[in-house]
Amino acid sequence: MKTGFVNITGDYHAENESDKTVYYDKNGHMLYKQKYIDGYWYCFNKYSGAMQKGFVLLSGDYHSDKESDKTVYYDENGHMLYKQKYIDGYWYCFDQYSGAMKTGFVLISGNYHSANESDKTVYYDKNGHMLYKQKYIDGYWYCFDKYTGAMKTGFVLLSGDYHSANESDKTVYYDENGRMVHADFDLDGIHYYVNSANGAITGTDTSTEEFTADENGVYMYGIDISEHNGYNIDFSQYTDQFIIIRVNWGTNTDSMAEYYMDQCEKYGIRYGVYCYSYALDEDGAASEAYYTLDLIKNRTISCGVWFDMEDADNYKANNNALNATTISTICQTYCKIIQNAGYYSGIYSSLSWFDYYIQNCNQYDHWVAAWGQNDGTLSTDTSEYGTMHQYTSTPLDKDVMYVDPSTYII
């Protein structure tokens, strides 16, 4: 009479039966269901007595009335597994006492990980698989490390394969529960502006200053600059003003853009950016918009992203693009892409261009070029046409805001 584990193979079973491993107790009785043998839990089929391997749902009379149903895993020796295990390309976690496969959020701590690993919170889907990268769970966005699965908190740059191919890089903030924040918040004395749609941090403000309009209706004075200004800008003189920086002309990078943005961030100057357009159609405008977005990713843009629509060198006229339909479509395309990326978007042009060429674009702000006497003083008021006004080019381009600077933070 055999006892213990026995492989039933060959002529030990009928031709229509499969080989199996079973267990006979000291009385020679075949065992069934869950059994604790020599320090391990095993499971034997309730009908055939075959020792189970792999994932098994223990339900019904496979457990006592006091226990709940659970999914467990038995290795090739039939032993129930516990804690973290890597199986067929996935990490799983099994309760260290019951062996129940865990799902949902789990804190991996203590003896659930090796001595050289840190505690971490991870997430297992309904199949028990550990998740990685960005995931939308129960109404919230979370981010899990692409290698360890650890849930991230705090500031995180979502770049590369942490987002889909049609998304732009962005910096976001996850609260202590790992949930992406979609509203403005204050942290360590800094106010962070957040795009409510995609969670992207669009700017910061360390100032507690409340802005009021002066006798000209101006909330803030500033300048706009490009590579034509070279290094002749003393940024320390503009800490209480704003600066708008050209970052690209067409799909070409302004050679001073990165330096100018670095200086603004160094001195805590509010700044925005603009693109001088050479687009001749909708596709060209889209290319310019995505080019701009690539140049300003990870930057703290606090005064908007503007589209410079003019034809200083007759490029548009020479290419039959100087008409209201084409110009309006180009403006709408660029601004929509910028706005959808989480930035305040507007159009720079002259009053005559806004009257004749730029139509059906009132959903986007206007930055109006109107120089008056062009003697360096503010001699005209364009506040009824847009929130920003370039009022002179002497000795360099100077501008004013007719609204509180926070207007440009989405």
TrEMBL record:
Q: Which GO terms describe its molecular function?
A: lysozyme activity
Q: Please give the InterPro entries that the UniProt record associates with this protein.
A: GH, Glyco_hydro_25
Name the SUPFAM superfamilies for this protein: (Trans)glycosidases, Cell wall binding repeat
* GO biological process per UniProt: cell wall macromolecule catabolic process; peptidoglycan catabolic process
Q: Which residues form a coiled coil?
A: none
Among Gene3D superfamilies, the record links this protein to: Cholin Binding (2.10.270.10), Glycosidases (3.20.20.80)
Q: Which Pfam families match?
A: Glyco_hydro_25
Task: Using the record, list the residue span of the signal peptide; answer none if the entry has no such feature.
Answer: none
Sequence similarity: Belongs to the glycosyl hydrolase 25 family.
The protein here is known as Glucan-binding YG repeat protein
Organism whose genome encodes this protein: Catenisphaera adipataccumulans
